[in-house]
Amino acid sequence: MITKMADRVQSVYENGFARVYTAARSAYDTRPLITHFLGLLAAHGIAGGRVVDLGCGAGEPAARMLVSHGFTVVGVDFCDEMLALAEKNVPEMTRIKSDFRTVVFPPGSLDAVIASYSLFHIPREEQATLFARIAVWLRDGGLAFFTYSSGGHTKGPEENSCELEFLGQNLFYSHLSLPGLRCALLAAGLSILEEKPDEEAGLLWFVVQKRAHGKP
Predict the structure, then answer these.
(1) Distance between alpha carbon 99 and the CA centroid of its chain, in Å?
(2) Angle between the 178-187 and 124-137 helix axes, to the nearest 10 degrees?
């Protein structure tokens, strides 16, 4: 049942919702957050490296901003229409059509990973595995930036999987409890650098860093 609800997200986007979401995207302005993340990348000596955007959508604003700062960006999305829009908006970005639960990158090949408004659409039971895969892809010291859901967002328990109405469609959302999320990140080899709540939306923004091998 949970897997079917998660898979339905792709069907919703492929049947016209991509255009609806893109038209409404300006209401969810992440540019200040991406600007902050760019500053963190610079502070950690990461400039002009390779970044993967998981659930890149139409490429705005994250991929566009990263490219404009000299990064090589690879966008992963499961929706053809989103990738077509991304080709127009950010032609410099390499585009991969894939479910980001199954996409593969070589170990240590990425300087950073972004998952903005995307990771919480996969079942919470699969999220720890994804964190572990992200840690493998990142080089030592690489950063990842992602949005996460919470009970305040899904209007339920602190560990929850459900469907919520968004822009006229029911979409699947899933999240661990906050202690469970922290444990999953640490177990994957990712240290939490920043954890910022968006109390109005009930969302959380995380920046994590891959620990160098052998470091606690």
Answers:
(1) 12
(2) 30
Rounded CA-CA distance 137/149 in Å is 23
How many Å apart are CA 165 and CA 162, to the nearest integer?
10
Question: Global pTM?
Answer: 0.90
Q: pLDDT tens digits, residue range 204-214?
A: 999 999 987 64
Cα–Cα distances (Å) from 112 to 85, 97, 107, 200, in that order, read 23, 19, 13, 28
Choose among 73, 72, 185, 65: nearest CA to 119.
185
Give pLDDT tens digits for 102-132. 999 999 999 999 999 899 889 999 999 999 9
Query: What is the residue type of 199?
Result: E
117 SS3 class: coil
